[in-house]
Amino acid sequence: MILEPLAARYASWLGLPAEETALPEASPDEVRAMPVILRMERAEPPARTPLLEAAAAAALAVCLDERTKPGGEWHEPVRDWVSGHIRKVARRARGTHWQAVQELPGVTISVDGAEARTLVPGRVVDVPKEVSRLQISGSELPPDEPGPAPASTPVLMLNPRVPMTVGKAAAQVGHGTMLLAALLDEHRLSAWAERGFRCAVRVPEPRDWAELHPGANPAQAWSERSVIAVRDAGFTEVDPGTVTVLAQWR
Fold it and tell me: pLDDT, tens digit, for every residue of 74-131?
């Protein structure tokens, strides 16, 4: 599976090939990222939680699209990106700018009226003008109250002690769905794909976060609680090594 390098780097205890676990930082001209486009119309902005859930599902949908299989038109760019640092750059779009990015290779997901489109990753220096003109920062969405996560739905829990912009959070939950998928067997992954990679994003109470946190034993956390941690590289907003998301399979 194209996400196997992630399992090797983030969960070497699974015994998968680990050649990619300690990659050096790429040169500036070779830095690769996945653009995450968040639809944020001025008159009717989306709710924060559905927008993050759409972004999380869209990131994984691109990775596991039929076109990423060997011989597919997306295989090489996704493979090259997954084999390095899985950077994502979230931008906001509205109106005609949102319509323009629909023409670029990627997947759009809608959740409760909120929409996010994740594009096929590539070199940052080659980002299309339809994307480069979009703002990375400048908009925020207020916290909402989505209620309990639906049963039997994977949950992405944002660190309750680490404030993140909606763009940063969108990138982090996208990392979370990818890591979960990298650890699932074929049967569970196929079942999730049939549900459109639907997931729930929540902010837990600090006590619940502490109980789920893998700590120094990620193997036990996965085997007993089906939890894996997303640790940020620290390029933006948070310190390197910060656990931004706990992703739990349910």
Answer: 999 999 999 888 899 999 999 999 999 999 999 999 999 999 999 999 999 999 999 9
Length of the chain: 250
Q: What distance in Å separates the CA atoms of residue 49 and residue 52, rounded to the nearest whole number?
A: 5
Count other Cβ atoms within 10 Å, centred on residue 159. 23
CA atoms of 1 and 218, how far apart (whole Å): 22
Give the pLDDT confidence score for residue 18 in this predicted structure: 39
Query: CA-CA distance, 106 to 23, in Å (whole number)?
Result: 26
| Helix and strand element counts for the chain (H, E) | 9, 9
The rounded distance, in Å, linking the Cα atoms of 52 and 112 is 11
- With a CB cutoff of 8 Å and minimum separation 6, the contacts of 64 are 2, 3, 181, 189, 193, 197
Which residues partner with 229 through β-bridges? Answer: 246
Residue 154's pLDDT is: 98
How many Cα atoms within 13 Å fall on the side-chain side of residue 9?
18
Ordered DSSP codes for 164-198 = --HHHHHHHHHHHHHHHHHHS-HHHHHHHHHTTT-
User: Is-contact 37 118, C-beta < 8 A?
Assistant: yes
- pLDDT tens per residue, range 9-24: 766 544 434 344 344 5
Task: Give residue 137's pLDDT.
Answer: 78
